[in-house]
Amino acid sequence: DGGITQSPKYLFRKEGQNVTLSCEQNLNHDAMYWYRQDPGQGLRLIYYSQIVNDFQKGDIAEGYSVSREKKESFPLTVTSAQKNPTAFYLCASSIWTTSNQPQHFGDGTRLSIL
Amino acid sequence: DAKTTQPNSMESNEEEPVHLPCNHSTISGTDYIHWYRQLPSQGPEYVIHGLTSNVNNRMASLAIAEDRKSSTLILHRATLRDAAVYYCILNGAVGAQKLVFGQGTRLTINP
Description:
The complex is a heterodimer of chains A (114) and B (111).
Chain A: E1 4-7, E2 10-13, E3 19-25, E4 31-37, E5 43-49, E6 56-57, E7 64-66, E8 76-78, E9 87-94, E10 104-105, E11 109-113
Chain B: E1 9-13, E2 18-23, E3 32-38, E4 45-50, E5 55-56, E6 61-64, E7 70-75, E8 84-91, E9 105-110
């Protein structure tokens, strides 16, 4: 079955540590996205990528970094500069960045601070 | 970004129809209306989307007002598995598909 795989499901970060969240898709989608969700809130866009080797900042990119070396993969690094990283992180993909294409989401990674 | 307004919560009974409203008075001519739903501890799931005409799929129907300033997601026969947070989102940006999620409507289904 095609879909989006996020790993790990749960992740713990120590103070001053960088952590990387994995996102892989086998849907052959061009565009990929990272969102953050805080308890009781909607999703907020961190970064997105329209094609390989290209990505753009979303609304809350500070303290995060991404790479897009392969079409299938869009890992997110939460750096030590992100002072409030505890959240539910969601990866998504879509066929192309036109307005009438739905996004497909993974099941998320829940990040907590030790 | 154009905003949408949804009730915070709604409640319905199993096997009855559910009508989830969404107001989007500042919608532009190129904005599509998308609906997603999210179950606890899961990623959002696409439900349906439309531009001007009403739309039907296996999950739901989308009724769009003639002036496009409001829309209604219709679940024809609710089941317990339909209990979720439902998000109404306008998606019309050229190039970048930056979905703006509000707080959505929390739908409770009573057995």
